[in-house]
Amino acid sequence: MTVEAATPGAPALQRVALGVSYDGRAYNGWQSQADGNTVQDQLETALQSFATGPKPSTLCAGRTDAGVHGLMQVVHFDTPITRDPLSWVRGTNRYLPRDIAIQWAHFVPREFHARASALTRRYAYILYAGRVRPTIDRARVGWIHHSVDVDAMRAAASCLTGTHDFSSFRASQCQSHTPIKTLEPIRLKTRGAYVRLDFEANAFLHHMIRNIVGCLVDIGIGRQQPEWLNEVLAARSRSAASPTFSADGLFFLGPRYPEAFGLPTHCDPFDGLPL
């Protein structure tokens, strides 16, 4: 976000960082759209209502697609309005719908940038491998009505660790300047019929995680062998991979920043549980 220098006599601009959580089911993703039905639109409208000034322009750590949930989306904006951090939280939450809530607010230096300052970004995908469709977990888990071989999925996922050209897992509408990303080891945990997959990378391509999950599910149900994923990665072609898996079950856990900024760590409601 470009910030213009303050004119003489104008109030100084304060940069504020917010941690935002949301249930993505009702929205057309994060990024603002003409119909206003996005998380960013809801947040900026609420900030304007609370601060009673011009609508602030927010910039996020990582855009999420329609149906994807955010547990610790981080945004920043610049404002001449003076409020203490707790007021930004409670005051803005008053104007937000019940499926979006600010978790914290911090004043940050002007060099902080929600996207560019992030060292890595983290996601979790919750897969439900059960014969009967989920009810209470509907839209919060990706459903496959087959059991899966998690060991085969884990073995296949190991080939993706490191710095690679991930073109095979890139959506055609992806706007990233490069398909080369650095991915940490994918971690898989199980609890009954649930499988949790954890992803962390310096950045992700559009639909990259859902396309990887689609491939791992095909391996888990025996449709493909683990070594097939090496072939998919080497092909550097979207046509070589499985179809994009459901957005249900995908959670943005948040970015990691240098400790010097003093921002809270990610919010993960699954911490301490087998998943």
The largest sheet is: 9 strands, mixed
Oligomer: single chain
Which CATH architecture of the largest domain? 2-Layer Sandwich
SS elements, strand count:
11
Structure description:
With 275 residues, the chain is an alpha+beta fold. The protein has 2 domains: 14-107, 2-Layer Sandwich (Alpha-Beta Plaits), CATH 3.30.70.580; 120-259, 2-Layer Sandwich (Alpha-Beta Plaits), CATH 3.30.70.660. The protein contains 5 helices and 11 strands.
Entry summary:
With 275 residues, the protein is α+β, with helices and mostly antiparallel strands. Helices cover 19% and strands 26% of the residues.
What's the structural blueprint in terms of helices and strands?
Layout: E1 14-22, H1 39-51, E2 59-60, E3 69-79, H2 85-93, E4 100-107, E5 120-129, E6 142-144, H3 150-157, E7 162-165, E8 180-183, E9 187-191, E10 194-201, H4 208-220, H5 228-235, E11 250-256
Parallel strand pairs: 3-11, 5-6
Antiparallel strand pairs: 1-3, 1-4, 2-3, 5-10, 5-11, 7-8, 9-10
